[in-house]
Amino acid sequence: MNELNSELKGERLFSLDFFRGLTMFLLVASSTSLFSSMTRPELEGTFVYAIGTQFQHAPWIGLRFWDLIQPFFMFIVGVAMPYSFANRTKKGHAYAQIRTHIFKRAFILLLLGWSLACIGSGEIVFRFQNVLAQLSVTYLLAFLVMNKPARTQIIFSLVLIAVTELIYRFFPVEGFNQPFVANENFGTWLDLQYGGANLTGHWVSFNAIPTTAHTIWGVLAGQLLMSNRTAMKKLKILVIAGLIGVVVGYALGPVTPIIKRICTSSFILASGGWTLLALAFSYWLIDIMKQKNWSVFFAIVGMNPLFIYLFANVGGSGFIENIIHPFSMALFGWTGEATANILTGMIVLYFLWYICYWLYKKKIFIRI
After folding, report:
1. If 0-12 CB within 10 Å is exposed, 13-18 middle and 19+ buried, where does residue 267 land?
2. What is the pTM of this model?
3. What is the CB neighbour count within 10 angstroms for residue 319?
4. What's the CA dihedral at 190, 114, 55, 48 to 10 degrees?
5. Which of 12, 14, 222, 264 could form an S-S bond across to 79 if both were Cys, CB 3.0 to 4.6 Å?
6. Residue 93 and residue 323: Cα distance in Å, rounded?
7. In this predicted structure, what is the pLDDT of residue 12?
8. CB of 202 closer than 8 Å to CB of 60
9. DSSP H or E segment with residue 97
10. What Rg value do the Cα atoms of the chain yield, rounded?
11. Contact present, 121 and 128 (Cβ < 8 Å)
12. Beta carbons of 197 and 191 less than 8 angstroms apart
């Protein structure tokens, strides 16, 4: 591990590697039995159950820790964009080449997101509510304004949020004019028009529009971190912006409920604020205080984020778990089924992490 830590040092923004890796680690963990086992009925009322609920989305109104994971992911992609494009420019890529790459990447993300929805349903369905499909839109829109002044980017992100709010509140179609009622809002109506409604989970494809703000704010954070400001000045700006988002988001809650499943304006602002604060904490701890050694464990997961996400969600986690489960039950079955399943999930998660470690050591990086 020390050798790996040495390899990762240099000009990289290590806090971004850690933040991305931690987010991907948690996303991959959700594909195992770990989180679901923590909320089994027999554990209700325990500390484990209380923690487990934080790794599940709020049923409708409210904000749990797990509701921040997709904003984290969208935001992190934005933070990385200025670094990525600066590297491409340094290599001599023209703007037209970069733009073509962006459009191709957005299309591939959309295709992968749609394909994952088909795999999960067992049939061809047109659903675009998952993180990759949503990212294809936010990534493209953020790119289109990333070379504009910071004020323009901020205004554009706020306009997207405001337009979404207005559409939901004033949508005139009867039966779908209840902006904050599950399956009776504009987002559900829109998905029904192309056969892609998710009536059970209440997720909507239109979320890609307001959550574009998260990716744009990520771009702005990346541009800030690349600037010539002092580290403490950068940290101060991140913290102030984060606090503004959290305070304004929660203050709007009584007027516009915080609902992740349709990405209400209050949710976008509150979750965006928490995301900025999470980056600020990572930047302070790792890039300012130089506490890097322990964070390598998570950082290497972020080196192959797309691969490990797809691998875990197309059956990789289930395949490993089917192999591990009989042995873990034999070893830990005496602790009770719930505890044994939690331990099984942890073992599977370790094997998924080790795949990332092996890829890193072989210098294999799968990107689009």
Report:
1. buried
2. 0.92
3. 12
4. 130
5. 222
6. 46
7. 65
8. yes
9. helix 95-121
10. 21
11. no
12. yes
Per-residue model confidence (pLDDT) at position 246: 98
Pairwise CA distance, residues 67 & 75, whole Å: 13
CA distances from 127 to 45, 74, 198 (A): 36, 19, 8
Give the Cα separation of 314 and 317 in Å (integer): 8
Regions in the chain scoring below 70 on pLDDT: 1-12, 120-122
245 phi/psi in degrees, rounded to 5? -60, -45
pLDDT tens sequence across 311-333: 998 889 999 999 999 999 999 88
Amino acid identity of 18? F
The residues near 73 (Cβ < 8 Å, ≥ 6 apart) are 23, 24, 27, 131, 135
- Tokens found for residue 133: 């499909």
Give the residue among 63, 97, 80, 62 at the shortest CA–CA distance from 24.
80
User: How far is 284 from 76, CA to CA, in rounded Å?
Assistant: 16
Helix ranges restricted to H, 171-211: 186-193
Task: State which amino acid sits at residue 294.
Answer: W
Q: pLDDT by residue (tens digit) across 4-28?
A: 444 444 456 889 999 999 999 999 9
